[in-house]
């Protein structure tokens, strides 16, 4: 007889729990504010387990940042390569559900001096935001080619504007303690990109 | 005979040097990364002098943040209330010289958990970014009323977009280690606001 499937799922392996705990702590407290001890406590893993799987905090942080960056990229690409016109896809990407007051888990790392000073930790941050600008520029170029956007639109420049509005929208929302300025900034950009007829 | 004016200027009073040192350190290292000792060293002031003038690090930080916020506000208002059409004034504000790789000395504080958790330190950050959005909305409303901007432009929404592009442009520049994405994001926005004829 097969075992009945009514028990709790087995706990994730320790290495996985350590990476997940690091992701959460990086988002909440930043790199400098995240201690190895806090990671072990959140993961329910001991110091021996941590150093069995990872050489230390930078190694764990790299695994955490890489996983977060891959998720964000897959999510963005799903929307930008999905159905709809170019403007609809950019709008879907701008409007996707976000945890606005926590900010962007990748973009926030640019404000962490220790992450920016370490070329290994900084690489996935730079690559993810760079990839996003290139992918958005491709979609905006499509929209210009098919007449959705005016010929004056420069795809690379506008792509940088789109990413900046999101990253800056998080800053405004945190300053205000309210998601409204983020939504206003996004709506303002969409109105400029595609003025109502 | 009057004294000849060829000597070095007298040193600034200690209270002033302490505030300036705190401003620099907040910008470079953030609040959490700034110790009272580092402030005293940079200011060339002793611990006794510091606690004679200020109750402690939060009190000094408030003086430093308030002074920075007042400067930014005066600079923005000078450009937004200066000569030129509405679009020219918003463009002048977007294009003003900035220390892009160091980021916005006010906006960066939103990424500092200790500053955001203290209502007294957070207030000048919230007020400065809020004031900027209101002032930009006034100028954009002027531009809409006189036909420079299309009727579809919502002044408040577009004002949030303008501030977000600047704050997010700093994030992109830091991620890339290069000011180019900041300039691209600003140019992209200006092209959307005022398409070349």
UniProtKB/TrEMBL annotation, chains A, B:
Transmembrane intervals: none
Ranges in coiled-coil conformation: none
KW Cytoplasm (keyword) present: no
Pfam family, one: TetR_C_13
Keyword Isomerase included in the entry's annotation: no
UniProt DNA-binding residue ranges: 35-54
Keywords: DNA-binding, Transcription, Transcription regulation
Signal peptide: none
Domain HTH tetR-type: 12-72
PROSITE patterns assigned to the protein according to its UniProt record, in alphabetical order: HTH_TETR_2
An MF annotation (GO) of this entry: DNA binding
Gene3D superfamilies listed in its UniProt record: Tetracycline Repressor, domain 2
InterPro entries hit by this protein: Homeodomain-like_sf, HTH_TetR, Tet_transcr_reg_TetR-rel_C_sf, TetR_C
Name assigned to this protein: TetR family transcriptional regulator
Protein's organism: Kitasatospora cineracea
